Amino acid sequence: MKKVVLAFSGGLDTSVCIKLLEENYEMEVITACVDVGQPQEEIERPTAVAYKMGALKHYTIDAKEEFAEEFVFRAIKANAIYEGYPLSTALARPLIAMKIVELAKKEGADAIAHGCTGKGNDQFRFEAIIRAMSDVDVIAPIRDLNLTRSEEIDYAEDHGIPLPSDKQYSIDENLWGRSIEGDILEDPMTETPEEAFNWTRSTDDALDEAQILEIEFEKGIPVGLNNEKMEPLDLIGKCNQIAGLNGIGRIDIIEDRIIGLKSRENYEVPAAILLITAHKALEQLTLTRSELKFASYVTEVYSELIYDGLWHDPLREDLDALTDNMQKRVTGTVKVRLHKGNLRILGRKSPYSLYSEETVSFEDKGMDQREMTGMVKNYGIQAASYNKICKKD
Ligand code: ARG
């Protein structure tokens, strides 16, 4: 019998896939769950489901640190936000796919399977990586059989497949964010019910007292909180917790998928909002005007590449190299205030600050104001000509 490695999260789609791969494709299934910081029960559940459903073997692959250091940190340096969505699901997909390819090679598998539907983005992200790194077949049972979510639920019930308790929504979680879609949320006029959220408090229920936080960055990467150095996973976890308690990080948008479908997406991304906002505040202090302008273009192109699953595009590496060079000076501390859904920058400092309090001050006499007279006089020369010549009557 041929062997297939299934990227397995234990959610509805992938749980249904185990049985489909056995029954419809007659393959032996090895399941693998890549840990990118989803909650502990999302690691334990797939293990139990895999064995219950008769998987040949099940692997849990811990990729949390690699995800934080090699993916999340790049996203912070590039302020990676696509159409208002601080990339989280999209950011983890390449790493998950890479780990699955490694395992498939180790196991000598004939194919790799995933549970993506034919309507979303993840099919592109998984398959682009798999094809870039190997020559095995790719199988997408849900897409092949054109299954709807309720057909999957019926199939699961008929085949005794245990389903997650919150199967109402389609949820994806990793340490950088939680995305929620499907069911009643598909109507963009329906308000997202409170029970859909898990990482963030509503503005009403957020902590009453404001929290002040000092975030320390080194070369564009967060390294400490309130004067205490922290390891990446602890720091991101703490930021998620503090910002979430203060009602920060809920995003409800209409987003453009790769295939052109518009979709309504809800995200909980408290640490991402906090750290990217603070990072941008430090960039304002340390980068030049032209660098800032270029960096915002880089953000746009970089985010689109990540969203589109093109991790292996050389442009992504080019942009990372450029960003790393710019970020050498993005070192310093940002002080923020979090309160009831509001995030306010209170202060920032850096040894590489380009801001000169002395020169900009209204009290300074060193920079002689009179020297500006000639420069100002001829400023806007083209606009003046246009106004005088072309708009005469
Ligand atoms: N729209 C987001 C993206 O493409 C999130 C998709 C997450 N999937 C889910 N089942 N909620 O990155």
Report the biggest beta sheet as strand number plus sense, adding barrel if it closes. Answer: 5 strands, parallel
Uncertain runs are none
Overall CATH class of the largest domain = Alpha Beta
Helix content: 40-55%
What is the molecular shape?
A: elongated
Mean pLDDT: 96
Number of discrete helical segments: 14
CATH 2nd-level architecture of the largest domain: Alpha-Beta Complex
Query: Secondary-structure element order, as H and E?
Result: EHEHEHEEHEHEHHEEEEEHEEHHHEEHHH
CATH topology of the largest domain: Argininosuccinate synthetase, chain A, domain 2
Give the strand order, joined by hyphens, for the main sheet.
3-2-1-6-7
* Fraction in beta strands: 15-25%
Explained architecture:
- The strands form four sheets. The protein has a five-stranded parallel sheet with strand order 3-2-1-6-7, sandwiched between helices. Strands 12-11-10-15-16 form a five-stranded antiparallel sheet. It has a four-stranded antiparallel sheet with strand order 8-9-14-13.
- Strand 4 (81-82) and strand 5 (85-86) form a beta hairpin.
- The protein is an alpha/beta fold and 393 residues long.
- It is elongated.
- The longest helix has 19 residues, at 89-107.
- It contains 14 helices and 16 strands.
- Arginine is lined by residues 89-90, 121, 170-172, 179, 181, 255, 265.
